[in-house]
Amino acid sequence: MPDVLRYEVVRTGDPQVSVLVRDQARNTDIALTLFALKAVDSLGLAPGTGRGYLYQLLGFCSWAESDRIAAREGWTRHGPPQNVQALIDRYLRHVGRCDLTYKKDRHGFDACFIRLTAASKVQIAPLLAALRAYYALLINKGSYGFENPMECRGARLARERIRQGEAEAFAQWSGRLRMPRSSGIDAPSDRELPSTAYFRPVNNDWRPNIKADPQLSAKVLKAGEGHGWTLQQHAVARLLFRTGARIDEVCSMTLLGWWESSGFRRTAFVHNKGSRKIATKEVVLDKTSQKFLRDYINLERVKLDPMGRTLAIFERLALRGELDPDEPIFITRRGTPLTAQHFRDYYWRSAMTRELEGITPHAARHNMVTLHLAEIDRIARTPKERDRLREDFAARMSWASGEAMLKVYDRRTPGQKILGVMQKVHARMSRRERELATRPDAPAEPPVTLGHESTGLLAQLIGEEDA
User: Fold this and answer.
1) Alpha helices, DSSP H only, in 311-382?
2) Most buried pick, 282, 329, 436, 453, via CB within 10 A?
């Protein structure tokens, strides 16, 4: 994706046309605006999914308009299917660093099979899903006069014919129509239907890099400082490295979540993946992170807050039960809540130096978990103690299953030792950050490597994220 988006989403205040998507010349892009307005209702998408797809499209379209090869060949997003497919092929190879193979699938349909490589730096699945939704909507609204370039030609018709044939055969055999799957009366058909997807990621099960750089947080913060990061960006980045929370969880932190968890002290509630934006996960804040949050709110955020509120004022509101549950900690210069996409596009990506190329906010999460698992492996005296510490760590990070959570909290002193482990890791991070800030030539620590068992646990804990 490009470092700078060529499009912006503008809120109008008009209930009929609530948003417009404009290019750098402030011209409205009709197709992207149509997607922003109609994708959720017309395609049945969740609002969060619709927003995520839109920003995937903004990044792709910005790249497409800046790529010289695409311009030379005349590949545009609204051209015939073969032109669109060539444009996406160019993106997958040039930006995604993917290997592509064109061949017929087992049903005889031509398709493009995508394999990630060691050099791949972007996540392909969200973009492909966004593009499929984009063209489906444009076709539905009569704004794209060709077949969907994201689908195999003829595959959808073949699927419908198979389904119709099976329905007729079932009706002839049973004398009635097949009941819907949700009824539980009739077993669903086990016949494999042809895929309609033209672009198909294959064998892309995510595997974590088993090495972590103990200096990564120091390097990122130093790069951010060189790029002019303010207290806000430093605070967000530190929270990513210290808490292991996802980027959207950090950016959407609320003042009430921090207050209800610890009274603006060492822990904060954030929403967890799949919690429908309800704050169900509690993250640990080290002293450095607490200081940056307080300084940000009192020195920087106060100037953007329409009412000029400091942390002390928010504390008084909380004590009276008047603190708005949706009041965000992090806000933009316009006073709107900071989003993960905004932080990635305008602060993180532009600050990453050549040395840090390809480092995403998710890398901070990966690094944090790896360092903690390595510390657990180092200090555990027995396999039983190691397993207990791992279990406590997973529970503390809100990754544990319900059964595992019961095991952890069915104790007199649940998870106390893991807090000590986390404090040690946080202290080492802070020390390396101070060293790199004052002594750029300080000797580097060797990468942290996990054993086989811990590597497997790492994959379970982190999972694949939107970079």
Assistant:
1) 311-319, 340-343, 349-351, 361-379
2) 329
Those residues whose C-beta lies under 8 Å from the C-beta of residue 366, and which sit 6 or more positions away, are 208, 209, 212, 458, 462
* CA–CA separation, 462 and 459 (whole Å): 6
**pLDDT value of residue 275:** 44
Q: Which residues contact 429 (CB under 8 A, 6 or more apart)?
A: 214, 217, 218, 241, 242, 371
* 29 φψ region: left (φ > 0), alpha (ψ -120 to 50), beta (else): beta
Residue 22, beta-bridge partner list: 8, 28
The residues that bridge with 282 in the sheet, in sequence order, are 269
- How far apart CA 325 and CA 256 sit, in angstroms, is 5
CA 332 – CA 63 distance, rounded (Å): 25
How far is 458 from 444, CA to CA, in rounded Å?
24
Instruction: Answer whether 430's CB lies under 8 Å from 288's CB.
Output: yes
Is the pTM higher than 0.85? The answer reads no
- For residues 31 and 78, the answer to whether their CB atoms sit within 8 Å is yes
Q: Please state, in angstroms and rounded to a whole number, the distance separating the CA atoms of residues 122 and 127.
A: 9
Task: Locate 211 and state its tokens.
Answer: 């090495």
Phi/psi at 143 (nearest 5 deg)? -105, 0
* Cα 71 to Cα 9, 67, 422, 444, distances in angstroms: 24, 6, 51, 44
Q: Cα torsion for 302, 303, 307, 311, to the nearest 10°?
A: 0
pLDDT for residue 400:
44
**What residues are paired with 448 via a beta bridge?**
212
Query: Within 10 Å of residue 288's Cβ, how many Cβ atoms?
Result: 17
Q: Regarding the domain delimited by 211-462, which CATH topology (the fold level of the hierarchy) does it fall under? A: hpI Integrase; Chain A (1.10.443)
Q: Where in the chain is the domain with CATH 1.10.443.10?
A: 211-462
Query: 425: which residues sit within 8 A by CB, 6+ positions away?
Result: 368, 371, 372, 375
Task: Find, among 256, 245, 237, 268, the residue nearest to 433 by Cα.
Answer: 237
pLDDT lower than 50: segments of the chain: 205-210, 274-276, 399-414, 452, 460, 463-467
CB atoms within 10 A of CB 412: 5
CA distances from 122 to 240, 283, 358, 359 (A): 19, 27, 8, 11
pLDDT on residue 410: 41
Per-residue model confidence (pLDDT) at position 449: 59
**What residue type is 467 in one-letter code?**
A
Residue that is written with structure tokens 């006073």 in the block = 335
CA 50 to chain centre: 14
Q: Which one, of 93, 101, 94, 88, lies nearest residue 61 by Cα?
A: 88
- Residues making up the chain, counted from first to last: 467
Quick one: tokens of 144?
Answer: 């794209």
Residue 90 DSSP class = H
The per-residue pLDDT for 208 is: 42
